[in-house]
What does this fold into?
Amino acid sequence: MYKVLTLNNISLAGLERLPRDKYEIASEIGHPDAVLVRSTKMHEMEIPDSLKAIGRAGAGVNNIPVDKMSDQGIAVFNAPGANANAVKELVLAGMLMGCRNIGPAWDFARSVEGTDAEINKAVEAGKKNFGGFELPGRTLGVIGLGAIGRNVANMALQLGMRVVGFDPGITVEGAWQLSSEVEKAGSMDELVSKVDFITFHVPLVDATRNLINAERLKMMRDGVVILNFARNGIIDDEAVSAAIKAGKVYAYVCDFPSNLLKDHERVVALPHLGASTVEAEENCAIMVAEQVRDYLEHGNIRNSVNFPEVYMERTEGQRIAIVNRNEPNMVGQITSVLANQNLNIVDMINKSRGNLAYNLIDIDGNVDDTMYEQLCSIGGVLKVRLID
Ligand SMILES: NC(=O)c1ccc[n+]([C@@H]2O[C@H](COP(=O)([O-])OP(=O)(O)OC[C@H]3O[C@@H](n4cnc5c(N)ncnc54)[C@H](O)[C@@H]3O)[C@@H](O)[C@H]2O)c1
Ligand SMILES: O=C(O)CC[C@@H](O)C(=O)O
It folds into this structure.
């Protein structure tokens, strides 16, 4: 029986992919083989020795200590693209909220009191304070052209906007899915100076902290609308707050409320709602549940953020999965242990990613306790699993 610990609510559609005759799933469980998580921060969590995999039912993995997991031979999976449409739709709503002043206008309409005739009179007199502008003809800057960014970019073109994108790490697959009408910026600085809206779709890492700061705000057009549906920390909220007060920024729409942002009429801060649709929650949960299951039951790896992509058809016999440091002579030492016991290798794959390497070895026979200990004790081996 595999044990799965859930740290957040994971959609039932995903949990159903882990059959109850093989999986025990609970929000409190000892010796878990896998953790399923959404936004719970795992940095301070004590990681049990039994843990083999973490499935992040979403895109961002900044709540998971990925390097530490790699050091312990634990695979971290995410669900690339599974919530991209949900975020794209909220970005569209955010652009409209920003340029049509929907937040403050709605607050005003809700605050008006009196008879219906008095409300009507007050509304007609007050609406001039909330006039906005339209999207067609305006320029949108998209920082990060991954699953979400390219969806947002393609959508904005359909709305009649001009779109400029920046992503030095864009993949070939990603570029194929991006409209050729999206203009390429050579740098962030070049992009920020020529857009009316700017939206961020990058992971939170050291290099993406405070991408918008006081200096970059000065380079921007007056009246810019800034959108952050990526992560808290990518925008310097203090600097944006000051730029709003100075009349430089027209509106700031984000998914990360704080005491500072609550004070601003020209800020809409939603409660981290980007991926909160039935469809996105199901897509993410199904994707990670299937990936974690394939890893636990067969050792295969799809969509891991720290392990290499590995798939090997099952053959008869026992499968050994070994995670090791990516150092010379590891395969030699591992296969010597098997050869010393006259165990024949039926099929084998070895792949590396960064400092890690991963082996799947199908053998004709069975690894006994002594051999298992020998494999575990090879210097540089981080985890050994015997999969029947
Ligand atoms: N608000 C929400 O609920 C919500 C939902 C989903 C994702 N997110 C956030 O959005 C982020 C992006 O999600 P995604 O699915 O598009 O991920 P993705 O991995 O498909 O795309 C990220 C893109 O950012 C690019 N990038 C990285 N550093 C960059 C930089 N300095 N400048 C420009 N581009 C850079 C990468 O090359 C990649 O193409 C996630 O990491 C997550 O933090 C938030
Ligand atoms: O699980 C969520 O609700 C948020 C997910 C989102 O932040 C992500 O990075 O995919």
About this structure: The chain has three domains: 1-81+278-307, 84-269, 312-388. The longest strand covers residues 344-353.
